[in-house]
User: Fold this.
Amino acid sequence: MLGLRLYMAQRLSAMVMGPLVLGHLAVMVYAIQGGLSSAEILARTQGSVAWFLFYGGFVLAVSIHAAIGLRVILHETTGLRGLALELFTWVMGLGLLIMGARAVAAVTVL
Amino acid sequence: MEVSVWRGAGDRGGYQAFSVPAHDNQTVLDVVSWIQQAVDPSLTYRYACRVGMCGSCAMMVNGQPRWTCRTHVKRVLEDGKLQIGPLRNLPVIKDLAADMDPFFDKWVKAGGVHKPSRSRAEPIQQVSPDEPGRVVANTAIECINCSVCYAACDTVAGNPDYLGPAALQRAWTLYNDVKVQDRQAILDAATGPGGCMNCHSQGSCTRFCPNELDPLSAIAGLKRAAAKSFLKGRG
Assistant:
């Protein structure tokens, strides 16, 4: 239930996610060890184009990657196919994108 | 020893118990043949060569796919018991005979039919055994189409459209064969519906292949070729 385009989308989004996950972990360790408060973190991220691109890219990659992965799991466990499977994939992808975009906007947009 | 054998046709049936005399040198196929010859002549199963060449006698033995003519009972006996069933992931015709049609249909679907680049009238193409493509192609030519890999594959079990390890390994062989003219056509077939992208790389195919072939690596090769082809704009 995976065409070549979806396969490549999932692989390429994984390649994007890899370094971003490591970057996110590094930021978490740095922020905690430095003892930054929430307000101090937000002061650094809000209005920052770099953090917007970093976490915006991460959310976009996750939305694509997870939606395709869940599509495969659903098909192989329930046999769902056709329009219902397409709808499920889009709802999952857009749902993750909207939720992630809200979080990114809250942290990086002034 | 206690042997339970699947009896039935299609989706319906159950295991029937038989008591079979044990011998020092005895294959699983010997056990099935003994039951058919000495106890119940109506037991249906399939075999031909008995020496691991024809690929027709594969069955599930204690839950795992095996070529029964080359599987010694003492290697697979569990607590003195043997359970023998038809191959997994295929429809059952009757008893131990699985319907191989879906397996071979997918073989064709994956581009497994050889389409030569030269006609009968032209001279035979010389192929160097050292040519890199030929070396890769050679690794899979001992496939006997037994469907053990197909029965072992959990992806086939979850996704019946998936072409399966044997068909895709065949596609990879032809893709590397210098005698094949249109390699892209093979790649297109192997990346079509149910194609190589659906493989989860679990490796049961390579683990269970009785000829110790490596369909897992063949499918990985197809995936690499497909990704390169996609990035060159053939998506």
User: Anything to note?
Assistant: The longest strand of chain B covers residues 2-9. Chain B touches chain A through 15 residues (CB under 8 Å). Chain B is about 35% helix and 15% strand.
